[in-house]
Design goal:
Fructose-1,6-Bisphosphatase, Chain A, domain 1, 2 domains, five-stranded mixed sheet, globular, binds 2,5-anhydro-1,6-di-O-phosphono-D-mannitol, binds magnesium ion, cytoplasm, fructose 1,6-bisphosphate 1-phosphatase activity
Length: 338
């Protein structure tokens, strides 16, 4: 059987003129960093990597040792390759340009080094999410403002899930492709080329404990899902919530479903829990490249003009027809209000 490694896949993408050598190198380096994170995650208690780091990130959230370690691994791996102009991370207040002593490249890299932190200490899947943008022409020391580009301008996006197997799921703007880490060889092998999300679903993913804090259209939409066959949707729905976005999105890319983290009244000043630049945009691109949809419930996620590096948004993504259905409830509610 002929096997396609990530290396070969990227070379073929370059030969086909879909990417240049810099982007190929960038993805290779990110994938290498993910392998290192995978090794650290899989050591668990034996690696001394579990538990709190005793620090907080920019958003006031407690950091786990693995959050800090993964952030350091990604920063270090990407500093010197010559393909990047700057990095931004969910764990750091500001972006960091490539140090002066290293060559600078054309791309900006954003990452959530270890998403699903609450699952680290309980041995449940976590992951790294990343997004790649172009550095605006003529800018050689980019600042935070240069990252504020809509998700539709991403040139690549992906995640690496550290689960029973480690998988890298990647889009370069031409479909979404999954690679599984062959641990003995240390290489990612293409196992699911051109993933397609089923258009319809009977499965939803949401943290139901927040139900009482949702706005009216969310209450109505989920109420109708729960009503099952006897309700207006005329079918029974199943629910899954892993509380690791990578794991929930991976399931949806594999067998369909809708993932929702809506706005809620717990902290009305926050537009949502998830971050536009590190979570919603890259996952939105992966899902849309697999035929699904990504919305805030009202507008397409990839069309949002960001106003801050750590901006939050409500997220609805997955099977096309189900996302469209959820959006209808919100738009109908807004129209009735006007
Ligand atoms: P994190 O980046 O701090 O790990 O938070 C993001 C995570 C997502 O992976 C997941 O979908 C969500 O938070 C779970 O939130 P909750 O614990 O409110 O259910
Ligand atoms: Mg996260």
């Amino acid at each position: 059987m002929s096997r396609t490694s990530l290396t070969r896949f990227l070379i073929e993408e370059q030969q086909a003129g879909r990417i240049g050598p810099e982007l190929r190198q960038l993805v290779t380096i990110v994938s290498r960093a993910c392998k290192r994170i995978s090794i650290a995650v899989s050591k668990g208690a034996l690696g001394g990597v579990l538990g709190d780091a005793g620090t907080g990130n920019i958003q006031g959230e407690a950091q786990k040792k693995l959050d800090v370690l993964s952030n350091d691994i990604l920063l270090e791996a990407n500093a010197w390759g010559g393909h990047l102009a700057a990095c931004a991370s969910e764990e750091m207040e500001h972006s960091t340009p490539v140090p002066d002593r290293y060559p600078s490249g054309d791309f900006l890299l954003l990452f959530d080094p270890l998403d699903g932190s609450s699952n680290i200490d309980v041995n449940v899947s976590v992951g790294t999410i990343f997004s790649v943008l172009r550095c605006p022409p003529g800018v050689d020391k980019p600042g935070d403002e240069h990252f504020l580009q809509p998700g539709s301008t991403q040139v690549a996006a992906g995640y690496c899930i550290y689960g029973p197997s480690t998988m890298l799921v990647l889009t370069l703007g031409h479909g979404t492709h999954a690679f599984t880490l062959e641990r003995e060889e240390g290489s990612f092998l293409l196992t699911q080329p051109d993933m397609r999300i089923p258009e319809e679903t009977k499965e939803f993913a949401i943290n139901m404990s927040n139900q009482r804090h949702w706005e009216a259209p969310m209450q109505a939409y989920v109420g109708d899902l729960l009503a099952g066959k006897e309700g207006p949707r005329g079918k029974d729905f199943n629910m899954r919530w892993i509380a690791s976005m990578v794991a929930d999105v991976h399931r949806i890319l594999t067998r369909g479903g809708i993932f929702i983290y809506p706005w809620d009244r717990k902290d009305p000043s926050k537009a949502g829990k998830l971050r536009l630049m590190y979570e919603a945009n890259p996952m939105g691109m992966l899902v849309e490249q697999a035929g699904g949809l990504a919305s805030t419930g009202r507008t397409p996620i990839l069309g949002i003009q960001p106003d801050g590096l750590h901006q939050r948004v409500p997220v609805f993504l997955g099977s096309r027809q189900e996302v469209t259905e959820a959006v209808k409830y919100h738009l109908a509610f807004d129209e009735a209000k006007d």
